[in-house]
Write a structure and sequence with these properties.
The longest helix is centred in the last third of the chain and has 38 residues. α13 runs antiparallel to α14. A five-stranded mixed beta sheet has the order 9-8-10-12-11. Strands 3-2-4-5 form a four-stranded mixed beta sheet, with no helix packed on it. A three-stranded mixed beta sheet has the order 1-6-7, with no helix packed on it. The chain starts with 5 loop residues before the first helix and ends with a helix. Among the domains are: 40 residues; 63 residues. With 812 residues, it is an alpha+beta fold. The relative contact order is 0.11. The protein is built from 14 helices and 25 strands. The protein binds a DNA duplex (12 and 13 nucleotides) through loops. Its main location: nucleus.
Length: 812
DNA sequence: GAGTTTGAAACT
DNA sequence: CAGTTTCAAACTC
């Protein structure tokens, strides 16, 4: 079964946690394409943002008073009811906390016949649709005309803005769009609500994308607390949510709440927008990006909130899944790779696949829960259509469980990179497995795809980041390394699928997401043994992305592959990727640090040791636990330990400078001991060096530069000379290569024997003597010699040709 | 290649 | 935060 459709995954990174988009989206035109700012430098990215809980456009209304207002909204029929959530499976929405926000969803569709039942409950609002899920969160969802009104009662922990003034209830109009609402609350149970695409309605402006493609648009709203964020598991019937790949605009409204405290509420609203436009991004400090990967067929009756299941998709295996989330040392690429979870009878079971991105916890989580009980889910027709050729990645699981990740081979790969500016980490989004995926065959024609990278905003608890998604074309292949360490296999016996980021707090890496060290295996979320996180070096990811078909691991363990640890070519010390790519990193020689301290360049650069000369190296996947610990230690000591020391200049390399400055005392900053000099930058005011000569006007520096340039020129010349000589030799060998063939072939060089050469030289000398005796001028003498040389050559050639002819005749 | 120098990282 | 130690790379011979 498909846990997540490729399209959905592709969309996942987009605009996650875009809270600003909420405000920017006009109510009249919710699907209006608000251009999202391109990923910018880390400097430009607000590191921390307190997002108001409620935005006007979203109609999120946070009430300052933390009254627990509980309302249960129940939709009776799965088919016709606007809310098609089947009651059979009830998912408590964790939104309900001490401060329980009220979320009101009002589908305003006039044609909706479904009965919406709202009940006040002390415990919290529960929304039951189609018998699938029960939303226990204190919010009300009323569907009318595709409008969802989220009324949230501001929790005590709501953002300051929310606290300061209760925001009026905000209405989200999902005209002609599908609305996905995911609530993740204290209980860690996300709620996914999908409003089926109702088709064009009068008065509803359709986006260009809508007109072009029937693909429904979605808005995904995720509500949940970061700390308590947990995958929806469950008891609830399997719900496969596939996200319409085309256009998502994700708006996240999150509250930054203490992990320990209850009632963390975050809203992530993903809104479909024009596929090629980027929506403005707003990030809320606690970054929890939840996405419901839900795709519903256009056929589905309007006003229905569906937990859709992609048909034809079955997860074949993979109870446990290990996901390698690999950090990239380059400026922050994060790719979330979702691993499909195995489900039996996937086709008949609904799978709830909440996708959670908890940046605050530095984890992206894609979860899929499956239940034995078949759940009837509105199957999105488009989902099946969107199924594309996939790549399968098998990730080793514990207990013999196997994970397989299907990565679409199509232009819209399920593996995407997320770049976090200023961060070296690289995350991979794993693709969920589909039935066809196991075979690598697309179950159906793919109708929609996002082929172009889209910037993504990832906001962590303290950081908001624009995360550009690397276009599929740039994806590289990952050579999987054997995952033998327990840390890597975050095992789980269950069939859940979770990838991206852990919803639960990860103590291992508390520093903000951007500081996440390269290469880290994230431990499974507490309580949930099914989830595994692994942060691996960026090169893994890049390689993986290039790989058409990658098997990360099989049932028990990854096959040991020698080339797994290929070092990433990442920007180092401010150098561009191209620069670093051109020159391979030097192998380290660590002996005592186990390559788990910043002494080790590999470790410091977020790379696994590969082809190094180190002893007792722990900087590899086999020692991921230790490595993770070391990373944490380093980050505790210096949260920016893994950030590039050389910051980007504003206008080119001239402005590059060392982040901390050097402390040289004896080298004059003119040797590679000096980090500034090594990075080919001049010392700055922040340097504390003594006797610095590494400044612009320094004569010593200029001299060194000239010498260095001269040396470089010499090296280049030598290289060129060698190349030329080599080619000449090669050419000569080619010409003299004996060729015995009938007609037209080269003459055998064997005719140029020593005797022939001696004879030729004698002839030439004789000619020279003759010229000397006759007192010929020098020019004439040279001419005579050359002429004689020509005669000699002619005779040699003649003899060789004659011999060749004889040979050929004999052979015949 | 061995030994020395150097400065960042780690430690106290 | 400052001083000291540790460490591995850079450098010298």
């Amino acid at each position: 079964m498909d846990v997540v459709s490729p399209e959905l995954n592709s969309l996942l990174p987009d605009e996650i946690m875009d809270t600003e988009a909420i405000e920017d989206v006009p109510q009249s035109q919710p699907e209006s394409t608000t251009s999202q700012s391109e990923p910018s430098d880390d400097t430009s990215i607000p590191m921390e943002t307190d997002t108001p809980m409620a935005s006007e456009n979203l109609g999120l209304c946070s009430d300052a008073t933390s009254t627990e207002h509980t309302r249960a909204l129940t939709t009776s029929t799965a088919t016709d009811s606007p809310l098609s959530i089947s009651p059979g499976s009830q998912l408590p929405i964790s939104i309900s906390s001490t401060s329980s926000p009220i979320l009101t969803l009002k589908p305003t569709l006039a044609t909706s016949t479904a009965t919406t039942k709202t009940t006040d409950s002390v415990t919290g609002t529960s929304v039951t649709t189609s018998g699938l899920q029960k939303l226990t969160a204190p919010f009300t969802i009323s569907a009318a005309n595709h409008q969802i009104i989220l009324n949230k009662v501001a929790s005590s922990q709501a953002t300051e803005a929310a606290k300061s003034a209760g925001t009026p209830p905000q209405v989200i109009k999902q005209e002609g769009q599908k609305l996905l609402v995911t609530a993740i609350g204290k209980s860690g149970q996300p709620i996914v609500l999908q409003l089926p695409h109702t088709g064009n309605k009068p008065g509803i402006s359709q986006t260009a994308a809508d007109t072009k493609s029937p693909a429904p648009q979605f808005k995904v709203v995720t509500i949940g607390g970061r700390s308590d964020l947990k995958p929806v598991v469950g008891s609830v019937g399997n719900q496969v949510t596939t996200l319409q790949a085309q256009q998502l605009k994700t708006v996240q409204i999150a509250k930054k709440t203490p992990a320990s405290s209850a009632a963390p509420i975050k809203f992530i609203i993903t809104k479909t927008v024009n596929s090629k436009t980027l929506s403005p991004q707003t990030s809320v400090p606690p970054v929890i990006a939840g996405r419901v990967l839900t795709q519903s067929s256009p056929v589905i009756p309007p006003r229905t909130i569906n937990l859709s299941e992609p048909h034809n998709t079955s997860i074949q295996s993979l109870p446990g899944k290990k996901i390698a989330i690999s950090p990239l040392k380059t400026p922050s690429k994060v790719t979330v790779v979702s691993v499909a979870s195995p489900t039996s009878n996937a086709s008949q079971k609904s799978v709830a696949l909440p996708v959670n991105v908890a940046l605050g916890q530095q984890i992206l989580t894609v979860q899929q829960s499956t239940s034995a009980s078949p759940v009837k889910v509105a199957t999105s027709q488009s989902a099946a259509q969107n199924i594309k050729p996939v790549q399968s990645v098998a990730v080793g699981g514990v207990g013999g469980s196997q994970f397989k990740t299907i990565i679409p081979l199509a232009t819209q790969p399920n593996v995407q990179q997320i770049q976090v500016p200023g961060s070296r980490f690289h995350y991979v989004r794993l693709v969920t497995a589909t039935t066809a995926s196991s075979t690598g065959q697309p179950s159906g024609p793919s109708t929609s795809s996002i082929q172009t990278a889209k910037p993504m905003v990832v906001s962590t608890g303290a950081v908001r980041m624009s995360v550009p998604i690397v276009p599929p074309q740039t994806m590289k292949q990952v050579a999987p390394k054997p995952l033998t360490s327990a840390a890597q296999v975050v095992t789980t016996t269950q069939t859940q699928q979770r990838l991206i980021m852990p919803a639960t707090p990860l103590p291992q890496i508390q520093p903000n997401f951007t500081n996440l060290p390269p290469g880290t295996v994230l431990a499974p979320a507490p309580g949930g043994g099914n989830v595994g996180y692994a942060v691996v070096p960026a090169q893994y990811v890049t390689q993986l992305q290039q790989s058409p078909f990658v098997t990360l691991a099989s049932s028990s363990s990854f096959p040991a592959s020698a080339g797994i640890q290929t070092q990433a070519r990442l920007p180092l010390n401010g150098l561009s990727a191209a620069e670093t790519t051109s020159r391979p990193r030097k192998p380290c020689n660590c002996t005592k640090s186990q390559c788990l301290k910043l002494y080790c360049d590999c470790f410091a650069n977020g790379e696994f040791c590969n082809n190094c000369n180190c002893n007792n190296c722990f900087n590899n996947l086999e020692h991921e636990t230790e490595r993770l610990k070391a990373i944490k230690t380093c980050l505790d000591r210096n949260p920016e330990a893994f950030k590039p020391k050389i910051g980007k200049g504003k206008e080119g390399e001239a402005d590059r400078r060392h982040s901390k400055g050097c402390n040289c005392k004896r080298s004059g900053c003119l040797k590679n001991y000096c980090e500034c000099y090594e990075a080919k930058i001049m010392c700055s005011s922040i340097c504390k060096c003594i006797g610095c000569k590494n400044f612009e006007e320094s004569p010593e520096r200029k001299t060194l530069m000239h010498l260095a340039d001269a040396a470089e020129v010499r090296v280049q010349q030598q290289t060129a000379a060698k190349t030329k000589l080599s080619s000449q030799i090669s050419d000569l060998l080619m010409r003299t290569t004996p060729v015995v063939s009938s007609g037209g072939g080269r003459l055998p060089y064997t005719f140029v024997t020593k005797e022939v050469l001696e004879a030729t030289c004698e002839c030439l000398l004789e000619q020279a003597k003759k010229a000397e005796q006759t007192h010929q001028p020098r020019a004439e003498a040279e001419r005579m010699i050359l002429e004689e040389f020509g005669h000699c050559l002619m005779r040699i050639i003649s003899s060789a040709g004659k011999a060749k002819a004889d040979c050929a005749s004999i052979n015949c």
